[in-house]
Every structure is written in structure tokens, then in C-alpha cells.
Design a protein that fits this description.
Chain lengths: 332, 140
Amino acid sequence: MLIIFELLLALIPKIYYHDILPTKSFLSAKENTLEIMTLVQKVITQILTGTLNSSIPGFNWILASMNILIDIGRMRGFFTRLPLYSFRSLYFQGWVLMLVASLDLSYFISLVIKEVDSSFQSIGFSLMMWGVLLCFGVIVSNNFLKKAFWRVICDPSLNSPNLLIHRIAVIKELQKTTLANFDQNHSKNHLNLLVWKTFDSQMKRILWAYDIDSKGLPMNVLFKNLLEKLQEKFPRNKDIKIFLAEFYFKQMKVYSDSIKICLNLQQSRNIKLKMNAELLLIRIQNQIKNKPKTLNNSHLDLLNFVSEHAFLAHLKQDMLRQVFKSKFALKS
Amino acid sequence: MYQNSQKAQKCRQIILKKISHISTRISDFHIEPHLLSAEYSLSLNHSIADYINFTKLSSQKLKKYKKFFAQEKLCPENAFQDNVGFLKISGVKGEAVKIIYVTKQIENILGGDFSQYPGLFLLREPLQSSVVFMLRGGNN
């Protein structure tokens, strides 16, 4: 009973109160699925150790096998679905996953060795194996992620909103890091040339699919258009809306559109979205408060602005008066 | 009839006087008064020459400030467009800050009900005095 109460107490904030928008902090929680899986794993372990007697034969095997099965499920979910972490945080999260998976695997292997040789009791060997497995795991994770990113760019049948948001993020990252200074005419590196050509053709295909004319558009506007098209494609998906709001605010510095989306999202019944919209509004507010001098630096005087509007309003009023008087004169 | 005609003529003189002062009283990038004057010259003042002059003037200015009008970021040059509004917020240190004045354009920019904005608590952190925010909406 206590375990279930503890599970509920931990699950409710994980489900309702997490910020999905990317921040600079690596440790900020962006995706709750993996955390919920870890929590469930912990609870199952607690239940097993509570109900089964640890002295019964095969108890360690049950625990080790269960941990490995959950690790496989978690890694599968992570590498195929790519949670909405920022591009670099995904690598970091992959390493963390490998850290846990390699620990579970080394425990499992030490159990196998112990089964073969019952006198084997070396903790040092287990730790060393954990280290080696971790190194392999990090390499495998990086390669899996690279492969996943290329699948995100190249797979035309992609239809998950999460992956389509990632597609934009991956293109942006590639554009910023690998391809920004790449000269296709003078490059001697064939691999880079191949990457550039693939990216270029895929980019053209994606833009064509979304009916976007990219000629002469800066990259930020292009990504904004892509996100807007994505929003049109999935009008009910609120995650895309909050990402678009964040993009307007962070990249384009168009606060008004961002505030408009946040105010709309605040009407939603979804507590998670409400909280995210609220957090984004606070970020916008802080940004505006920190940089309030955009107009003060230039020559627009607020008094002039208001007086010009007043002058125009008076002019319109006089014109209306003339129209009325002329009409009365004609009638009488 | 005579009295009303006299009043209409008086209004016309006032308007023409104001229009002649547009260039000195209005910023160079504020195009709306020129467009209004052109429309007035054509439909009320029946002066085709004035209409052509004002239209030419506004198209020249439109050409001159085209770059500023197209940009999404708010700047003095595009501050007089239809999609720019401003809201004034005020607060005392230690209390929540609330909106005290908004222009109609804010409704189009931020959505929601325009009449409910004044009095709405906006910021959680207190400011020391009143502040004016100007916002510019998107192209749509």
C-alpha cells in the first residue's frame, strides 16, 4: 500500500508538472516517459524484494533479467522515438541510459560467471567490466543517435509530430555546425561532400513537401515556416504550438505571436501545457524586462507617437464632421 | 442650409490647414496621414491633382521605408503600422502590476477580449513605476 502511495506521489508531478521546452540546462527534465519507466522499474524491484524471499534460488536471476528487459525497452523507446530533448541533451541522455544499462549488464554477466564458477567473488572485475561496457555503450549510443538523426531527415514516411519537430532541430543543428562553413566547390573531403549533398537534396525535398519557397529566405524564417506548416498539419497537437511559441520568442524575437499562443494554451485543460505556457510567459516577461530599451536606443519618442495618433484622430473627426454638415446642408 | 454649408466650408478650411501641416507635424515614416489626405482629396475635396500628389508621396515613402515595414522586429519606422499597439502597465513596489491602458490593436496581437485587459494583473514581479510596452503583430 505504502509502495503504491509512493508511486502515485512520484508519478503525479512527473506526469503533470514537467517543462518540455529546451533550456540550456542539461539536467532539466524534457520528457517524462523515460523517467516514468525508471520509476516503474524501481517500484517493481521494491515489490519483488518485498514479496519474494531473497534466499530463494533464482531470485538474483529474476532481478537481473527484469532490469535488463526494462533497459532494453527503455533504450528502444529512446532511440526510435527520440524524446523532445534538445539536440545535445539527447547525446547526454543516451550516455546516462548506457551507464545504467551497462551496470545491469555487468551484474548479469557476473551472475553468469558465478554460476559457472561458484568461487568467483571479484568486485574489481565487475567494476572493470562495467567501465568497459560503459565505453562500448557510449560509442553505440552515439552511433545509434547519428543513425536516428539521418533517419529523421531522410525517412519520407515519418509521421510522428515529435520526430518531425526533431527533423527541424536536426537540420538546424547540421546547418549550424557541419554545413555552415562548408564550401562544396573547393572541398577535398568526399565524406563531407556526400553529407552536404544528401542534406541539400533532403532539405529541398522537405521544403517541396511542405510547399515552402526557400529562395532568399534566411534559415530562421525557413524553420519558422516549417514549424508553422507542421502546426497546420497537426492542428490538435499542442506540443508543436508550444515549440512554435518558443521559436517565435527565442529565435525570431517576435514576442507578440509567442504571447498569443501562450494565452491560447493557457485556456487548455491540459495541466502540463498550461504550466509550460505559464513558464514560457515568465521567460518572455524576463526577456522583455531585461531588454526594455529597444525603442529607447532609437529616436522614437512616445510623446510624439501619441500626439501623432491624436493628430490623425482629430483629422478624421474633422473629415467626418464635414461629411455630416454637407449632408445636412443638402437635405435642408 | 446656408448655416450648414458655412460650417462644412469651415471644416474644409480646418482640414486643409491641418493637411498642409502634415509634413511638419508628422514623422517621415508615418504614411497613413498621406493616404488619408489622398482619399480626402479624391472623395470630398474633388481635387485630382492633390490626390495624385499625395498618392505619389505615399508611394515614394513606402518605397523608402519598405525594408523597415517588412521586418518583423519593432522599430520607429514601423511603429505607426496597423499591427502595432501599446499597453501601459503600472505598479507599486511590493504589489502586483496591472494593465492600465491598451490600444485596440493589442486585441488582434494578443487575442482575448479587449475590454477585459484594463485591470488585468500582468506581472508577478513588481515594477517601481509605470511602463509602456509596444507590441507588433505578425503579418497575418
